[in-house]
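Researcher: I'm preparing a figure for a lab meeting and need a structural model of a single chain. I don't have an experimental structure, so a prediction will have to do for now. The sequence is pasted below. Please return the structure as tokens so I can convert it later.
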Amino acid sequence: MKAYQQNNINQINSNKTQLPLKDDAGEYKSILKIYDFEEMIEDYLTELEIRNYSRNTIKTYKSIVINFHKFLKNEAKLYTEKHVLRSFKRYIQYLKRDKEVTQNYIYLVTVVVKKFFEFNEINYLNEIQTPKRTKSLPKSLNEKEVVELINSVDYTSDDSEFKQKIQKRDKLILALLYSSGLRVSEIVKIRINDIDLFERTLRIRGKGDKDRVVLFDEDTKILLEEHVQNHDPEVEYLFVNRQNESLSPRYVQIMIKKYAKQLGLNKKVTPHILRHSFATHLLKNGVDIRAIQQLLGHTNLSTTQIYTSVDMETLKHVYDKAKQ
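Model: Understood. Here is the structure written out token by token.
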């Protein structure tokens, strides 16, 4: 059976004009019967892991290809390349109209599904053009708001020892996210051996398993020193839960949202917004954009330029100064 399927696949890849294919009973065969999509998806995800794609990226890609496969299962005719092409367009239409997803998600779905087909040497979607992405800049907090957010994580002597420990840990997480411009996926994977308190540096393993060194300020150093002193020397990661396992990115996201709400900040606050605030404030205070690029771990300078927009007040100041 597998040999029969492979012969059909070879026929398709080498000579598409032989589509549609028919089975022994003379019925047209859906590509879902010709290709083993479950196995193809598994092979594709394995390849992404081998190429050192991040866990979150693999999870996102998996969701996209599985959801598209589910959609194809409900399509009436998938006998020719034209049928598959039409079904993909209907899927994009369905995402836009029924799911009301963002334009950037449409872009991601198009890229991922095309890559998935190309990986399996299926060229049905070659004519699909990748849609444009919207390039809206993420919001940022001003310096005062960041300081207030970090300082809002406090405790009293009446609090239990456990609660004090959690509050100190959460405050340090907020301080590090801002003072070092870390991604949430990076901060939860900091190891004790990555810290140099004397030099005020952290060694970070970023996207694509690329290492970089980042800095932290004196206030954060004080918080970090206390945390390290009370840290179990047998535990590898800096930030852990009750089971001494590294915290999840989701915990950090929820934690930040909780403190921002308690403070009464009428802004969306996420780890990424703290990272963007870090970059924006450095740029505003005269730090060279290439230095910011290095601290953020961006491969391309264009990425840094997108994330480090200067606020209008600063822009007016620079403009007026240049016109004097």
